[in-house]
Amino acid sequence: MTDKTSVVVAQVAGPAVEKGEEAVTTAARPAEPRSVKVRLEGVTRSYPGPDGGAVVALQDVDLAVREGEFVAIVGPSGCGKSTLLRLVAGLQETTSGTIDRHHSGSARPDTAMVFQDHALFPWRTVLRNVTFGLENRGTPKREAWEIAARELQKLGLTGFASAYPHQLSGGMKQRVGIARALASDAEILLMDEPLGALDAQTRTVLQDQILDLRKADPSLTCLYVTHAIDEAVFLADRIILMTARPGRVKEEVAVDLGAGRDSSVRGTAAFAKLAQDIWEHLRSEVEAAMQQESARSSP
Amino acid sequence: MTVTTGPATTNEATTDAATGTRRPRRTTRGFIRRHWLSVLSPLVALALWEFASRSGMVSPVLFPPPSAIAVHAVEVLTSEPEFGGHIWATVRRLLLTAGIAAVAGILVGTLITVTRFVGTGVENLLAFIFPVPSLLFLPMITFLVGRTETALLLTAAVTPVLIMVNATVFGMRQIDRSLVEAGRHYGARGTRFFSGVLLPGAMAAIVPGFRVALGFSLITVVALEMVMSETGLGAVLWLSWRILQVQDMYVALLVVAILGLLVTRGLNAVMDRLAPWQATGNTP
Amino acid sequence: MTAVRSWAWRIGPLLVAALVWELLVRTGVLDAQFFPPLHSILQGFVEAFTAERIYADIAVTLQRLGIAFVVAALLGIPLAIGIGRSQVIDGISRPFVDTLYPVPKVALLPMIILLTGAGEVPLLLVTGLTAFLQITISVSGAVRSIDTTLLEAGSNFGATGVRHITRVVLPALMPAIFSALRTALGLCLVTLIVVEFLSSRTGLGAFVAISWQTLSVNLLYVGVLVTAVLGHGLNALLRIIERKSLPWNVSWAGAAP
Ligand SMILES: Nc1ncnc2c1ncn2[C@@H]1O[C@H](COP(=O)(O)OP(=O)(O)O)[C@@H](O)[C@H]1O
Ligand SMILES: [Mg+2]
Fold it and tell me: Mean pLDDT, to the nearest integer, of A208-223?
């Protein structure tokens, strides 16, 4: 299923988008020439609106994600973050613009998505949810089980392989969703507010786990949607800030907290400063989004 | 704090604190203590009938006392293999009809779901004939296949098939959109998508639909046996009434009633087997 | 706009089906003696409605249905509320309701004829029993699942006794009652047509049976089609009544008429 990927290796050196009118931190990119995994150019997506018109969810988005990069996307709700991920996943088509997925040519699938509402199959056990993608690719059963067991262990779910999703807590379901995505060993991991529905403590623990996953596999490429700024700062190399609808790229912020950061980074001044700066930039967009909401529901 | 529970589980179930599951308490004495009215009221009714019949208040020929019917039932069921044959004929028809309904219904339902335009057309056409009782299709079907066993089965299957189509379509349409997407995203296509996502996702509607379909099958099979068959409980019911073999009629009625109970009760057990993930509902 | 489209979606498939039928008959795939071409079925309609036979049958069926259904609802709804609210009523009636409910009601026809003699009464009893049991089962289930906070709010604000039933329980139940009535009406019609087919000389079921026996093939199809239309008409009627009487109910809001 790699026929849709066009080769864009030639353009690898091209800089990431610099669209912000007043960039907070101009990204001081490390010079290592890592290959671009996915590149969005002028991507626009609109939906049929309520009264025959069109709702433009995303407008003219340019974005490139390199191998091993962890890019977080932050923006007010309804600004098209999920839409962006779904376009990258190929679940939807763009209205205009192109998305190039650069595939290494192996048998690995392009993308694996962790869905916002976990989207676990209630009729499958935890283990069989994790092996689902592998089964569809014809991976031998034994091998699929071994892979799944490994991923479940990574996420601390070993004892729950034969449980059904309804028997799990929200945090555990989300971890199964992550295990399912990791098991399919895709080129790009897509995560859509994976921790959005969880309580604060569970979220903190899972953030640490995701950071551990990153450290364990430096080649992991990830596009991570969240509405929590601290989460983005904690996890990402780079944060894309989006405007209220129609969603565009407002700013791009490099996170220079070091690759070896750990849980304790949350307490540092640099962390707080960065989060605060980002919030200052995002506030006006969130307010705009809230106004859109009330304008729509007031008539 | 009070716990609200579904129908009829209030008294019979205790909550197992360790697992959070409900378990019926199974002691006969406990059952009688809690449901003595439900035990008593049918006994009173039977006693009244017995008395009315024996005292001649109602005709003992037309309404023999329940004890006599019970004796006759034991006699017939143990010593007349012919009667066993009638029971088997009805059960066999019931199973075949239900089988046709399940296979055809799920097949057509799936096609309706996955093909947009033609599907909606077929769906609306089927919706049009839905209120027509299966029995009215008997003439048409006999024109095609004659007055045969096949005609009986096909006729009995009409409404059950439509019920299964509806259940399947409804079940498949209400599958969470994100589950459908997750299925496609992780590479399920064609029959794999059907067997891995659509069918299990729709099971929650298909299984109750099947129970309703079975109920309708039983109604139509019995009615058709009355109309056109020499075998089966419906035929016994009809013929023994005609020749006033009243006791045979009551025994047949009793067996039909038991079949009806099995159809509804037995399926609950099957349902738990087929959909264990729904043991406590799939929403938190 | 959307109303037109939804009607087109309902009528369109029927026209296509009629066309396919005509094609199958003309090409001889279906035997024209038993599967007459459209124009003769239309002729059948004219015949049925001008010779006035079918009016009487429709009227008889509607009358039986009306009597059986109304009586069943008037008895079933109070009993269901009783079952849902009182353990004694529940205990006494449950064994009968639970045993009779799954029994195919046609199977009771011979016994009921013995009980009451042939004629109208057995038809009404079998049909009414079907509706009665369906209404009792569905509504009593609904009574138990009424939102308890609603009931508590009712008593808290002084609705007790009869008022509690008429001002809190019944209104809370209305959507479930209507849904039960619609299911019951459908079942009721099916049962009535079947028993008419089996053991009556009048009514739509008998109309079809007699048309079949006399091989009046055109009339046979007319009978089947009229039954379908009748079923939809009655269902639509109940829906309209429901919408008029429960304007607050959201279950149908936004749905096409
Ligand atoms: N399938 C759809 N049909 C119509 N509108 C949609 C659809 N999906 C999303 N939208 C609209 O597009 C906008 C962006 O949605 P989404 O990508 O889900 O935002 P986010 O994930 O950032 O909250 C919203 O206004 C939403 O209403
Ligand atoms: Mg979203």
Answer: 90
Q: Phi/psi at A252 (nearest 5 deg)? A: -130, 130
Which member of C91, C110, C186 has the closest CB to residue B38?
A: C91
Under CATH, what is the fold of the domain A9-14+38-110+186-293?
Rossmann fold (3.40.50)
Backbone angles phi, psi at A104, to 5 degrees: -75, -10
Q: Which residues of B touch C35 (CB under 8 A)?
A: 140, 143
| CB of B171 less than 8 A from some CB of A | no
**Residues in chain B within 8 Å Cβ distance of C227:** 131-133, 136
Per-residue pLDDT, averaged over A144-159, amounts to 92
Note the helical H segments in chain C: 2-26, 38-50, 53-85, 87-100, 109-116, 120-144, 148-156, 161-163, 170-199, 204-213, 217-245
Partners of B176 on chain A (C-beta within 8 Å) are 117, 119
- Amino acid identity of residue C5, one-letter, is R
**Which CATH entry fits the domain spanning B79-274: 3.40.50.720, 3.40.50.10610, 2.60.410.10, 1.10.3720.10?**
1.10.3720.10
Q: Do chains A and C touch (3 or more CB pairs under 8 A)?
A: no
Residues within a 6 A CB radius of ligand 1: A 47, 55, 57, 77-83, 245
What kind and span of H or E run contains B127?
A: helix B116-129
- Most B CBs within 10 A among A115, A123, A172, A188, hence the mutation to make, goes to A123
Q: Is B139 part of the contact surface with chain C (CB cutoff 8 Å)?
A: yes
Q: How far apart are the CA of C69 and the nearest CA of chain B, in angstroms?
A: 16
Structure confidence by residue, pLDDT tens digits, B141-160: 999 999 999 999 999 999 99
Q: What is the pLDDT of residues A70-114, one digit of tens each?
A: 999 999 988 999 999 999 998 899 999 999 988 777 778 889 999
Q: What is the pLDDT of residues B162-175, one digit of tens each?
A: 999 999 999 999 99
Average pLDDT, chain B: 84
Number of neighbours of residue B157 by Cβ within 10 angstroms: 28
- The pLDDT value recorded for residue A226 is 92
The pTM of the full predicted model, rounded to 2 decimals, is 0.81
Tell me the C-alpha distance between B86 and B248, whole Å. Answer: 12
Greatest alpha-carbon span in chain C: 74
Give the residue numbers spanning the domain of C76.
36-252
Nearest CA in chain B to C223: B136
* Model pLDDT for residues C123-172, shown as the tens digit of each residue: 999 999 999 999 999 999 888 888 777 777 777 776 777 777 777 888 88
Cross-strand partners of A65: A38
